[in-house]
Amino acid sequence: MERENNKHQFEVLQQTQHEYAKRNIHYMGITITIIVAFFIMLFVGSFPVSLPTVRVMGFFFFISLFEFLILLLDSFVLSPPFHNRPLILWLIKIGVIALLAPFQHFLERGVIDLLSSKKLIEARTKFSIKKWWLGLKKQPETRDEGLEKETAVL
């Protein structure tokens, strides 16, 4: 009987660990997706694109970023103590979202202004990978400071 009980507890523990691993993979996938979306937004913003395109990309990026933050807050901070109290959980999340909304709009406006300005395009031309690569391949200049052809320099 005790062996069956231990076997059942071991199976429950394995199932719980499998669920945690699956949840962590989902969180990692969301994180990678948000980071890739940010770099795509910066890459597309370095080219002359229409302002509505930049605004839509920025809107979806920041909505997904802050919703992910709310998801993490809900899963790891709020859910354990308030699991069976949906009204309190709902009110706390409304308060947190109300505090984060102005910050989200501030960041969104700043990034959209940066992407829609010419600064990013100018920065892209200054920091071109092609120019950097050509600078690395450039041969060092030889010094001819009045030395004869057959003089050894140590």
Polypeptide structure, described:
With 154 residues, the chain is mostly helical. The chain has one domain. It is built from five helices and no strands. The longest helix has 44 residues, at 2-45. The radius of gyration is 28 Å and the shape is elongated. The model has no long low-confidence stretch (mean pLDDT 82).
Number of domains: 1
From the spread of the alpha carbons, the general shape counts as elongated
Please, how many helices? 5
Radius of gyration: 28 Å
Main beta sheet strand tally, sense and closure: none
Helicity range of the residues?
over 70%
Mean pLDDT across every amino acid position: 82
Distance between the termini: 87 Å
How would you classify the quaternary structure?
single chain
- By secondary-structure content and strand pairing, the structural class works out as mainly alpha
H and E string: HHHHH
What proportion of the residues form beta strands (DSSP E)?
A: under 5%
Q: What's the count of strands?
A: 0
Any low-confidence stretches, pLDDT <50, length ≥5? none
Quick structural summary:
This protein is mainly α. The protein has helices at residues 2-45, 51-82, 86-116, 119-126, 129-137. Helix 1 runs antiparallel to helix 2 and helix 2 runs antiparallel to helix 3 (86-116).
Tag the structure with descriptive keywords.
154 residues; 5 helices; mainly alpha; single chain
Write the layout of secondary structure elements.
Elements: H1 2-45, H2 51-82, H3 86-116, H4 119-126, H5 129-137
